[in-house]
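Review session, final week

We close the course with one last complete record, chosen because it touches almost every idea we covered. It is Ribonuclease III domain-containing protein RNC1, chloroplastic, a protein from Gossypium anomalum with 526 residues. Go through it on your own first, then we will talk.
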Amino acid sequence: MLQSFNSTNSSMELSSSLTPFSKKLSDISFSSSLSPFPLQLYPQPSKPKNLRVLAVAVGPSQELPRNSPQRLLKELAHRKKATAPRKKVPPKRFILKPPLDDKKLTERFLNSPQLSSCLPSSKLNTADNTWIDEYLLEAKQALGYPLEKSDELGDDNPAKQFDTLLYLAFQHPSCDRTNARHVRSAHSRLWFLGQYVLELALAEFFLQRYPRESPGPMRERVFGLIGKRNLPNWIKAASLQNLIFPYDDMDKLIRKDREPPVKSVFWALFGAIYLCFGMPEVYRVLFEVFGMDPEAEDCQPRLRRQLGDVDYVSVEFEGNKLSWQDVATYKPPEDALFAHPRLFRACVPPGMHRFRGNIWDYDSKPQVMQILGYPLAVNDRIPEITEARNIELGLGLQLCFMHPSKYKFEHPRFCFERLEYVGQKIQDLVMAERLLMKHLDAPGRWLQEKHRRVLMNKFCGRYLREKYLHRFIIYSEQVQDAYENNRRLRNPATTAVQQALHGLSYTVYGKPDVRRLMFEYQVLSI
């Protein structure tokens, strides 16, 4: 009993001793400009109660004291907002910048060509400069370029970036530097562009060298020259194999290890040359540095039956096989009718004028020219040049809409197929340039897939059909009945007509008109 009394007495003393201490603490509070915040201690620290803090709004004009709780809470909220946990996002290599709108894209096309879109996304680092210091002079010497640094050239000269692009061209996916994102992406964009540069260059060359030949044998010649099986021979002829395989003997590698890196470097190399020096330099490197021979036995087409040519060719092609120097150094005369007069004559010889004056010429041609926006306004020195160009343009349009089933046995000159051939190549190149400018961060393989999907034969002709131009195609009666209700037969024919129109616009007005037809008139969705 005495023990219980003592415990009761001690508890009373403890409570009496805590009571004034708690009262003194209740009077202590943080100073604030509006209201105090009391802080209370509880007698049982083992079971604390929830502490409620009431915040009072403070006007923005009033500055809070340094130790104010409102200020501390505000700073904490701001810090949480700045360091919020990041959302789960895809890897950076899949993130693309938003595409440019048409106005900015047009300005970029006019001010600087596609050169800026193939430069690396970040500055070259020490490892990149090490490769340039060790190997770039060897590459430039093998390709026949001066050894001075291209950085010393003027800002308005596209060749100023040649050293950078040449370095990127040799960084194929199997080399050491491919782990760097800016190197890998820039190299893939270069080979994406270079493959279409090569196709167009050789198409123009063979069209002018063989004016009586159909495009079928020409495609075989092109494949014989730049097919992936033959590319290692050209690389070895230019002594560039040590830059592609610095640690291996190229001849001892198996095909699947040798051909993909060589093809990637070869395409990227011509993408860089085209961006810096243009198409004439592409011909020089192809035929002078790599030593390609269009008359070599391994690139000759197979023999095939061909109808005799009853038409005569243009005077500059008669009995004369043009060399690559003739094609590379050709400049049209000052009063030329066309942007590419010799290429136009290779596709539409003078003998085709006998097809003018038929029903299509009077009935369909005005409607087609109105839909396509022809003829374009050109400032000529004399009006006779404008009239002659418009006559040739009308003849070319008729040949573009004349299906082979209608004229194949009347004149075997393959005008439609030749226009389609050059149109397909210029269409591929223009679309590649457009995609490079539109998607500045996209890797080459993504652009390749996008390019293929837009220009696939299955969809390409629909842009022609949306303008109802397929109604003006001239078929033979038998083919007309077969195509009437068969979409699978009709769609490839409309695709061919569309490509022939691109070829005609390129030879008559040049590449800007091909861009107009593809992106303003047809509104290709890319």
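Two points worth writing down before the exam:
The chain has 24 helices and two strands.
Confidence is low (pLDDT under 50) at residues 1-5, 8-26, 29-37.
Good luck, everyone.
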